[in-house]
């Protein structure tokens, strides 16, 4: 056990002197509660006073205060960090206020510069990026206008294509008449490759009930020409017959008969020509014109479809060009804004009142030997300065794992600052880390400590961050507890024993212990108030049969 104690003390060599004394007390407590028979066998005989009477303690009822005592560092509970927000491989500090500089409210309102980084490289990048950004902005504007122009052009092309379809239908309807044209479109609409059935169309046009169209009017004109030619031929034949009779009766000359014969021949030719013209129209001109108008109408519909497709394609191209230009514009705009923020971030102004502490000094566990200075290179996210709020101070301490289960947020505490040992400050536990701290080089790997924060009540301007302080945390306070000094309890064969003074000598008594502090331990059973227990337990008895167990569990 002596070796274990020495090892435990070696683990805390880097602690302050008070921390050593505190852990020494804890070792004594643990030794008193867990001492083995091996240790006790090396104890001297029972301690006695000058009259030879054993030194005893009268078991009594009293209040028992349970505390956990640790040392730590004063730390502001609220602070404002000045952090490097500039990206890149590193930024050079060209100006920084001295550590310990007092920042006033007027400094904050006036925008006092506390640190400045070299922004010359960023400024060069900004100048180049602004040129690229200007070109991107011009391209973006051009793409916006191009999209508007394309939309207007699409509207015009679509209107022209739709109008061509309408005109094609009007030409076809004019040629055939609306009813016949509708019938034709219904027939050919079932088969896009179908052609007009001329015979059917002619039959429809020759129907007197059908609507008129240019083709029907043409047919009627040709038919009328045939009728007229035949009527003239009939009349000429009659005149010829009459002239022949008059000639035979010597009433008309021969020349008149000849003239009538020529007239008959002429009208006969006209009649034949009119019939041929009608036949040619039905066989060639009418089918040709009908198919031409039908084809023109169909082509207009196809052109309308192509116009829709072209419009979609051209609009998509214009939109893609606009999207690309917008993306480029926004990209370079963001780069310009970012560079401007980076340049602005090179000038760091006082964010709040307080005392300036360099980032290399703010964390006492990671403090650098060389503080930040002009010419140093800092990186994004690095804490350059911290300005603590002196109106809300506390202590950051490490609680040993043996005591951490006793410490809870909200418990009252007393803080003693080493710089002011005669003054005590009321405090309260604000937080206890759920996990132990990472192992430090000077700590034994088996030692676990938990970072705990204690907030000091009130405002104390004379307390500065970094000062050493002792914290006494009030864990529990028992009233009317049966107590004895911690050193009177010994271990015998795995049982906790107290030795009761009696006329027949020390009598071992098995006891059950409860809470304890550095001086006293609570007895839950095994002892009665008023009994005297030996302050120094005797040497280990030869057999466990001498242990009196009658009082166990009382």
Report on the architecture of this protein.
The chain is α+β, with helices and mostly antiparallel strands and about 550 residues long. It folds into 3 domains: about 10-75 and about 390-545, Beta Barrel (Elongation Factor Tu (Ef-tu), domain 3); about 80-115 and about 345-385, OB fold (Dihydrolipoamide Acetyltransferase, E2P) (Beta Barrel); about 140-335, no CATH class. It has 10 helices and 22 strands. It has helices at about 1-10, 15-35, 35-40, 105-110, 120-175, 180-190, 200-205, 215-250, 255-345, 360; strands at about 55-60, 60-75, 80-85, 90-95, 100-105, 115, 345-350, 355, 355-360, 375-380, 385-390, 395-400, 410-415, 425-430, 450-455, 470-485, 490, 495-500, 505-510, 510-515, 520-525, 530-535. The strands form 6 sheets. A 6-stranded antiparallel β-barrel has the order 2-12-15-14-13-16. Strands 7-6-4-10 form a 4-stranded antiparallel β-sheet. Strands 3-11-9 form a 3-stranded antiparallel β-sheet. Helix 5 (about 120-175) packs antiparallel against helix 9 (about 255-345). It is rod-shaped and about 200 Å long. Mean pLDDT is about 80; it is low at about 1-45 and about 540-554.
* Coarse morphology: rod-shaped
List the total number of helices. Answer: 10
Low-confidence stretches: 1-45, 541-554
Q: In CATH's first tier, which class of the largest domain applies?
A: Mainly Beta
Mind describing the biggest β-sheet?
6 strands, antiparallel, barrel
What would CATH call the homologous superfamily of the largest domain?
Efflux pump adaptor protein, beta barrel domain
CATH fold-level label of the largest domain: Elongation Factor Tu (Ef-tu), domain 3
Alpha carbon gyration radius? 59 Å
* CATH architectural arrangement of the largest domain: Beta Barrel
